[in-house]
Amino acid sequence: MNEALLSAFRKRLEKELAALHEETRTGAYGARPVTLDQQSVGRLSRMDAMQQQAMAKATQARRKTQVRRIQAALTRLKEEEFGYCSECGEKIALARLEFDPTIPTCIGCAAS
Question: What CA–CA distance (Å, rounded) separates 2 from 15?
């Protein structure tokens, strides 16, 4: 893989990482604890708030997983292992990397 292509993947990964950090910063409000004061919030409103909190926590978990995947891909770029399967060492198809540059395995190893 040539240097220009590796640079393009690096920029894409860094941009996605920055966007995830921004989403995490702005989305933290939704995961705050739900108050159980029945005088200020009715039962249905509280249930709705708890559901929204659960969805916000699930979204945060997905973001954390994606951040770890991006950081691992950036590490592979730095160590000049990007584009090679972490299982068998063969090259990962360019179309597969273009679809998701965080993919660590070739299609053969992913299928098994």
Answer: 20
More reliable by pLDDT, 25 or 27: 25
What is the pLDDT, as a whole number, of residue 43? 60
CB atoms within 10 A of CB 106: 20
Q: How does residue 41 score in pLDDT terms, banded at 50, 70 and 90?
A: low
Domain locations in the chain as residue ranges: 3-82
User: How far lies 106's CA from each of 10, 34, 83, 89, in Å?
Assistant: 19, 44, 9, 9
Q: Is 84 helix (H, G, I), strand (E, B) or coil?
A: strand
Sequence-ordered list of residues with C-beta below 8 angstroms from that of 66, at least 6 positions apart, any chain: 16, 20, 102
